[in-house]
Design goal:
This protein has two domains: about 50 residues; about 120 residues, Outer Surface Protein A, domain 3 (Alpha-Beta Complex). The chain has one helix and eleven strands. It is of the alpha+beta class and about 220 residues long. Strand 5 and strand 6 form a beta hairpin. About 20% of the residues lie in helices and about 30% in strands.
Length: about 220
């Protein structure tokens, strides 16, 4: 009896389309995962930008520490009230003077603080018709003056301190002519000047005190015997 030879089993071939299909499914799963991740990242970036904008707005309005700029530069600043009316300006004018002007509800300037290019400074209080009624000023020669004007803008009184230390207080009539003055000279002596009769000579004060800086007051003369 002849021994039987073992017969080798022939494996059934695997369909060629099965591995390709699995690979395609895996690729599709990866694509879906990437799309979900991309959407999540876009949402996160949007939320982050929104929070950053909100923080910057709050910082600008309320001045959060570390969020306020140390320096702000501009040629002119405007101050507005709740109704949007301009109530103040801060800047330089055409003559190169730096000015801070505060206005009333009607837009009329009522207070002007001015620094001229030569160093002169002046603070003027203005009435409703733009006449400077009170002016406090200093000049480059270090003299200081206070000028009072009437409703017409005419200078009626000047109180001044000269660079040499003398002081004067001068009074004028409605026409701006000096009528009386008192002062202390550099030696410490008091001076008095009165104009009592028509035609007598008198030092003239400036006609108006409309400038924000004031001229030095004329020194009163000692009354003759």
């Amino acid at each position: 009896m002849e021994p039987t030879r073992p017969t080798a089993e022939i494996p059934h071939p695997t369909p060629a389309g099965v591995p390709l299909t699995k690979r395609l499914e895996a690729v599709e799963r990866d694509n879906r995962r990437l799309r979900r991740l991309g959407v999540a990242m876009l949402i996160g970036v949007g939320v982050l930008l929104g929070l950053t904008s909100a923080i910057m707005i709050v910082a600008a309005r309320h001045g959060m520490p570390g969020m306020v700029p140390q320096v702000a530069e501009a040629r002119k600043f405007l101050l507005r009230d709740r109704e949007g009316r301009i109530r103040g300006t801060w800047g330089t004018n055409e003559e190169g003077a730096a000015q801070l002007i505060l206005q009333d509800n009607a837009g009329r300037a009522r207070m002007r603080f001015t620094v001229l290019p030569d160093g002169s400074t002046g603070l003027a209080f203005v009435d409703s018709v733009n006449h400077a009624r009170i002016v406090v000023g200093t000049l480059p020669d270090e003299s200081a003056n206070i000028v009072l004007a009437d409703r017409g803008g005419k200078t009626r009184a000047v109180f001044g301190i000269a660079p040499n230390g003398s002081t004067t207080l001068v009074f004028a009539d409605r026409g701006g002519a000096t009528k009386a003055g008192i002062g202390i000279d550099t030696r410490g002596f008091g001076t008095l000047n009165l104009v009592e009769r028509p035609g007598a000579s008198a030092e003239e004060l400036p006609e108006q005190a409309e400038d924000d800086t004031v001229p030095p007051a004329p020194a009163p003369r000692r009354r003759g015997n």
